[in-house]
Design brief:
By secondary structure, this protein is of the alpha/beta class. The protein contains 10 helices and 10 strands. Helix 4 runs parallel beside helix 5 and helix 6 packs across helix 8.
Amino acid sequence: MKDTMSRPPVVAGVDGSVSAHHAALWAATEAAHRQVPLRLLHAVDIAAYAHAGGFGAPHGFFEAVEADGQRMLGALREELLAVHPTLQIDTELLAADAVPALVSESAKAGLVVLGSRGLGGFSGILVGSTAVALTAQGQCPVAVIRGRTADEAPPTDGPVVVGVDGTPTSEPALATAFEHASTHDAELVAVHAWTDFETVTAHTYANQFDVDWDAMENSEREVLAERLAGWQEKYPDVTVNRVVSRDRPVRALLAGAEDARLLVVGSRGHGGFTGMLHGSTSQALIYHAPCPLLVVHSAR
């Protein structure tokens, strides 16, 4: 039996919500595939409760909150063990703000997994800049587990879709995507979008300046082929479909992920994926991806 104790665990942030429950199930399956331990983490910001509205918490309040959290963690652990009886599952309740707690955990984890919305200790975890901060500050890949609707379970079949920006910054995302596709016997769809302009706007300027779109597209196909060459040799068991899109990255990725089991992107990029996880682009992927989103720190 492999020694899983020395290998980085998968960490799932949970809070009792339906979304977090889906995330925990997904995280357990991923930990089982990786043959590593699973850590279930529940964070409660005691300081926020203590000063809410300027009033002190009633006697026994914190003890009750902690007891509820421990019961939730225990019940979830037992449920996951019923599905994965040989999986090592540890639980911990922390009196801390969720984001710093998860960022700290990411230094020792191989993957941090979250639901797309939450309650309790992780309430608001994926609102605006908080999600961007977590993907930016985390020291390991971060997965946001989504289905087609807020409370729907994530898909378990379909291809793995990865965003490729044509530069070395996309290598870590490619490595993760190929490994996931190989481990889960899935096809891989590599999406390379190469304009930050709206399609209509791009065509307008192209007509004015006589841009050769066919030549540009052929060049971008060569760029994608170069990026994929080494990985296809390393993972000959993975079938790869290439998509070169004359569109904005976020729209191309959302379209490609429509029937996917996982969407993988880097945390930063150049060319078509500049600012991939900043501002409105990041929110579009986090809030609207029809499948789990895995954010991998890109090469710097």
